[in-house]
Amino acid sequence: MTAPTPPAPCCGPTRRQLFRGAGAAAGAVVGASVLGACAESTDPGESAASVSSAGAGTVVIALAEVPVGGAASAEVGGQPVLVTQPVEGEVHVFSAVCTHQGCTVVPGDGELECPCHRSRFTLEDAAVLGGPASEPLGEVSVTVVDGDVVLA
């Protein structure tokens, strides 16, 4: 009697090999996402400097458009900024580029918020209140002239 002949090897991977490969690919995607979230921060001084390059006297926004105890979004020289008025008559302008990974920060409820990773900043000095950002937003020097917030 002769021993049975084993089946000829198939030309493709086994189901087990396919699942291992898919698991490894999924792990690589997740790993890349996690490492990407830990990337280097954005330089707040660099963002503010690019806004300031628009030049002194450039109108940022009418003061009447900035709520007391809040903020308004604007753009100067193609760069996004946030104009805050923590108390009546106290005005600040900050780069709206998040210091964590460069997303655009928006006005929140009594604070500034990054919608990408939930960093939060104060209205008074853009100090970090929470989230992954570790640096405050860059501040731009401004003054109020005839009811307009202008670059100083």
TrEMBL record:
Keywords: 2Fe-2S, Disulfide bond, Iron, Iron-sulfur, Metal-binding. One of its GO terms (molecular function) is oxidoreductase activity, acting on paired donors, with incorporation or reduction of molecular oxygen. Residues 58-151 form the Rieske domain. InterPro entries: Rieske_2Fe-2S (IPR017941), Rieske_2Fe-2S_sf (IPR036922), Rieske_Fe-S_prot (IPR014349), Rieske_Fe-S_prot_C (IPR005805), TAT_signal (IPR006311). Its cofactor is [2Fe-2S] cluster. It comes from the Bacteria. It holds the Pfam family Rieske. GO terms for cellular component: membrane. PANTHER family: CYTOCHROME B-C1 COMPLEX SUBUNIT RIESKE, MITOCHONDRIAL. Iron-sulfur subunit of the cytochrome bc1 complex, an essential component of the respiratory electron transport chain required for ATP synthesis. The bc1 complex catalyzes the oxidation of menaquinol and the reduction of cytochrome c in the respiratory chain. The bc1 complex operates through a Q-cycle mechanism that couples electron transfer to generation of the proton gradient that drives ATP synthesis. This is Cytochrome bc1 complex Rieske iron-sulfur subunit. It comes from Isoptericola variabilis (strain 225).
